[in-house]
């Protein structure tokens, strides 16, 4: 895969701290990825993640590759320039494997990438496919030693007879080289498919969750892990619920949550017991009887759970809505936002074409005032919590002009279609935005369509 | 453009076709994989001559040549934005009838094309009462949802492990429908058609494990579950007790377990040749074979019809003795390497989870014609499917 910048531009704006209110307008910044419509399966983006400073943006794809973009350092002479993201490093993280015991392939698709907080010059990230987690070190090399005493520049040893003086090598600058090397491989701990990884705030441990179990790892130890949650029933016939996502609390290193396919979230405290099968808190909203259908359970299945940056709230994404929960209130969410309610009448068709099983992710902005999630037809939704406003935007090639402000889109559920609205029936359900990421400090968002990565920035007047 | 008549495939055929169709090219095809388009009826015949070939095959096997149907499908497919050949996972292509609910499905993929499907209305046009219409359409919807779910469950047997979350959700949906049907009483009717007496319908609420067999190596690794049928060829399977042990489980009706099917096939292939040739000429299953049923085995209705059909198609693929010159001509450029016994065996063993097959068979009512199980057309459609797949693979 080659990430070539199709359009890149310098947007003359000043950066703003990551607030989201007050008529934020989003405009196009960059798009990465191939232009043609014929999508190679290996190029399908499967995860997007900013690092803790926002300087680096990592994407993983179905072909097992990780591409990291780096934000250019701002030009000091032109403080109005917003920097852009360019390819920093590309490497093959996972290879396809074959499980001979079960005669099944193990996909190399990268399910999740999580950055570790930076401790030294190198960057570390965890990437995982269905079965194996790897810790990668990304380091820069911009100097190399020159002037060896005993070696020529090309590495050949000098003839000892010709050496008459002592020469000490010195470091000279060279072209920047970014190397990615696997430092740890955490394998063979999961029977089922890994769906989440989450780094603990203690920076020493992390969890990995598959459909039925959650394991706790130490970053330094690869040959064993602790199982902290196991919901596998003794009799698999009784299996009715699986784990869909898990995350550590951003500040409390003993707390984590995991969501289930039945729409419940369990908060567990690792201090309570070694095996956290018994939850400390159970977050569940009682079902609305008026909306009950055969698909109620499926659409209540939570596809993503994310803590807010301040650690007081968590957000869950199910098929049709986004819910914000206060960690202190278990019986119902404090806020519920409909993402694409117009799909509720189409559930049967969506079930038939399997779209109902799509796992959408969601993300918070830097100060937890706005949340974002994806939808179909390359739409994504920004939900402003403070102003109680929401907007639907589209990531498309049509709005790729430099500095072009994104126009809000509207979907018409039925009846008379107004101008500029799209009817539900014309939505393209092959174009879905499952993965989005928000810069931790600025109003910069990365939105992944099938094989393209769009970067949008805020426009300030 | 009307909804084409469904090409129903019963599950044994799907199973058989699945084995025949497993190939290794993960990224070999020029087709994009759209797992979301699983249950669209697919006929991505891109070239005219392929279409002609198909027509020829159909004529050969006595199938009605339905140019209109193909055309309508192709047209519809062309209308769809970004449509590619649908395949389930990495191996299986399917001819699953679009259920009655899915008329609007295609709307979703074709921009701006508005289609009304009026099949549902036509069916119940006899009934004058609105209430009755609603009720029957509800049960129709429910039934089609059940069929759809069961198909989905079985067809997640790919080279890659199926998504457990999806399987569990579908299984829960099936259970929910079952429960509702049990309360309605309609479940009883369905169950009776297929089960042996003495088991109450409620006992047959399906265990998840059977519906979507877990990845865990089960306690019975030797046993495969295969669909059960009315018509069967017991002799082939039961021939050697030591090789193929057949038993019925208690939890689910009509669970038919044939151990080490590969060996059964091997053995039965030889004996099945003549029978298959006959069957080929018939191109119609059903009454002929029913008469062969061994009465003592009737109750358990074991032994898959699948095997016979698999042999049948297996037969064809290997250019077995006495094919038509037309057949030969048609298959001359088909790569038969896929249909080696080894391939089939491997393909079979790679996904020994055919539990749901029997469920489908026991649950799907035989009386409703649009359902997935339509025995009369099984063989012909199986052949059709296989041939189409050959064509496509060969292209």
From TrEMBL, chain A:
This protein's UniProt keywords: Repeat, WD repeat
Gene3D superfamilies: YVTN repeat-like/Quinoprotein amine dehydrogenase
Transmembrane segments: none
Organism superkingdom: Eukaryota
GO cellular component: protein phosphatase type 2A complex
Record-level Gene Ontology MF annotations: protein phosphatase regulator activity
Matching InterPro entries: PP2A_PR55, PP2A_PR55_CS, WD40/YVTN_repeat-like_dom_sf, WD40_repeat_dom_sf, WD40_rpt
Binding partners and assembly: PP2A consists of a common heterodimeric core enzyme, composed of a 36 kDa catalytic subunit (subunit C) and a 65 kDa constant regulatory subunit (PR65 or subunit A), that associates with a variety of regulatory subunits.
Family per similarity comment: Belongs to the phosphatase 2A regulatory subunit B family.
Name of the featured protein: Serine/threonine-protein phosphatase 2A 55 kDa regulatory subunit B
Annotated source species: Cyprinus carpio carpio
From TrEMBL, chain B:
Disordered as annotated region, ranges: 272-304
Residue ranges annotated for the SERTA domain, each copy included: 138-185
GO cellular component, one term: nucleus
Superkingdom of source: Eukaryota
Pfam families per the UniProt record, alphabetical: SERTA (PF06031)
InterPro entries: E2F-SERTA_domain_protein, SERTA_dom
Listed PROSITE patterns: SERTA
Protein name: Cell division cycle associated 4
Species, as recorded: Cyprinus carpio carpio
């Amino acid at each position: 895969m080659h990430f070539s910048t199709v359009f890149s531009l310098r947007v003359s704006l000043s950066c703003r701290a990551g607030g989201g209110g007050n008529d934020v307008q989003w405009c196009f910044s960059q798009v990465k990825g191939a232009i043609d419509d014929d999508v190679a399966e290996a190029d399908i983006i499967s995860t997007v993640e900013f690092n803790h400073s926002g300087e680096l943006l990592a994407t993983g794809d179905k072909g097992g590759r990780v591409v990291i973009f780096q934000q250019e350092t701002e030009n000091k002479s032109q403080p109005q320039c917003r920097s852009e993201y360019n390819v920093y490093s590309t490497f093959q993280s996972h290879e396809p494997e074959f499980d001979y015991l079960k005669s099944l392939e193990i996909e190399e698709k990268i399910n999740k990438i999580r950055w570790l907080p930076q401790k030294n010059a190198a960057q570390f990230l965890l990437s995982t496919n269905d079965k194996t987690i790897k810790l990668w070190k990304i380091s820069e090399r911009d100097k190399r030693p020159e002037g060896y005493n005993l070696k020529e520049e090309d590495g050949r040893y000098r003839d000892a007879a010709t050496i008459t003086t002592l020469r000490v090598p010195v470091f000279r600058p060279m072209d920047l080289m970014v190397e990615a090397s696997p430092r740890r491989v955490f394998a063979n701990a999961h029977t089922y498919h890994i769906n989440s990884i989450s780094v603990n705030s203690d920076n020493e441990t992390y969890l990995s969750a598959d459909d039925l179990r959650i394991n706790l790892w130490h970053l330094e130890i690869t040959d064993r892990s602790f199982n902290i949650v196991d919901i596998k029933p003794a009799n698999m016939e009784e299996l009715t619920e699986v784990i869909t996502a898990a995350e550590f609390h951003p500040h409390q290193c003993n707390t984590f949550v995991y969501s289930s396919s039945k729409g419940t979230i369990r908060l567990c405290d690792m201090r309570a017991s070694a095996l956290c099968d018994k939850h400390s808190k159970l977050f569940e909203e009682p079902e609305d009887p008026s909306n009950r259908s055969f698909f109620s359970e499926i659409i209540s299945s939570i596809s993503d759970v994310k803590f807010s940056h301040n650690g007081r709230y968590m957000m869950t994404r199910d098929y049709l809505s986004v819910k914000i929960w206060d960690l202190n209130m278990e019986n119902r969410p404090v806020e519920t936002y409909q993402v694409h309610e117009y799909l509720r009448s189409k559930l049967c068709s969506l079930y038939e074409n399997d779209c109902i099983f799509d796992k959408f992710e969601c993300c918070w902005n830097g100060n937890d005032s706005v949340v974002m999630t994806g939808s179909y037809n390359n739409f994504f939704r920004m939900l402003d919590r403070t102003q109680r406003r929401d907007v639907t935007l589209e990531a498309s090639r049509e709005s790729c002009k430099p500095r072009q402000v994104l126009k809000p889109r509207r979907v018409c559920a039925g009846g008379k279609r107004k101008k500029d609205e799209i009817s539900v029936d014309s939505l393209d359900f092959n174009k879905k935005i499952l993965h989005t990421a928000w810069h931790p400090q600025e109003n910069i968002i990365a939105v992944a369509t099938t094989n393209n990565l769009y970067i949008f920035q805020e426009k300030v007047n | 453009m009307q909804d084409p008549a469904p090409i129903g495939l019963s599950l044994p055929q799907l199973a058989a076709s699945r084995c025949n169709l497993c190939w290794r090219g993960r990224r070999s095809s020029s087709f994009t994989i759209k797992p979301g388009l699983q249950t669209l009826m697919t006929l991505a015949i891109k070239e005219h001559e392929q279409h002609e070939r198909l027509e020829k095959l159909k004529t050969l096997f006595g199938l009605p040549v339905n140019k209109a149907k193909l055309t309508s499908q192709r047209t519809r497919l062309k209308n769809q934005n970004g449509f590619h050949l649908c395949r389930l996972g990495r191996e299986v292509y399917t001819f699953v009838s679009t259920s009655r609910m899915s008329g609007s499905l295609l709307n979703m993929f074709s921009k701006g094309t508005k289609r009304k499907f009026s099949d549902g209305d036509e069916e119940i046009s006899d009934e004058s009462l609105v209430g009755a219409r609603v009720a029957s359409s509800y049960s129709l919807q429910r039934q089609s949802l059940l069929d759809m779910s069961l198909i989905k469950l079985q067809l997640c047997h790919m080279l890659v492990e199926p998504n457990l979350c999806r399987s569990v959700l579908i299984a829960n949906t099936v259970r929910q429908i079952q429960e509702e049907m049990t309360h309605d009483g309609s479940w009883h009717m369905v169950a009776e058609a297929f089960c042996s007496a003495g088991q109450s319908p409620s006992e047959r609420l399906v265990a998840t494990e059977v519906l979507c067999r877990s990845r865990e190596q089960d306690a019975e690794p030797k046993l495969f579950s295969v669909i059960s049928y009315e018509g069967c060829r017991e002799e082939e399977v039961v021939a050697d007790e030591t090789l193929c042990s057949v038993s019925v489980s208690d939890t689910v009706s009509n669970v038919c377990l044939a151990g080490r099917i590969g060996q059964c096939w091997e053995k039965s292939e030889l004996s099945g040749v003549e029978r298959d040739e006959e069957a080929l000429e018939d191109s119609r299953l059903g009454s002929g074979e029913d008469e062969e049923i061994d009465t003592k085995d009737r109750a358990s209705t074991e032994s898959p019809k699948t095997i016979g059909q698999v042999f049948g198609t297996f037969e064809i693929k290997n250019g077995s003795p006495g094919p038509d010159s037309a057949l030969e001509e048609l298959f001359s450029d088909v790569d038969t390497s896929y249909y080696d016994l080894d391939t089939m065996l491997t393909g079979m063993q790679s996904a020994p989870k055919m539990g749901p097959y029997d469920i489908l068979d026991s649950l799907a009512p035989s009386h409703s014609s649009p359902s997935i199980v339509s025995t009369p057309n099984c063989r012909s459609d199986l052949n059709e499917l296989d041939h189409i797949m050959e064509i496509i693979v060969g292209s």
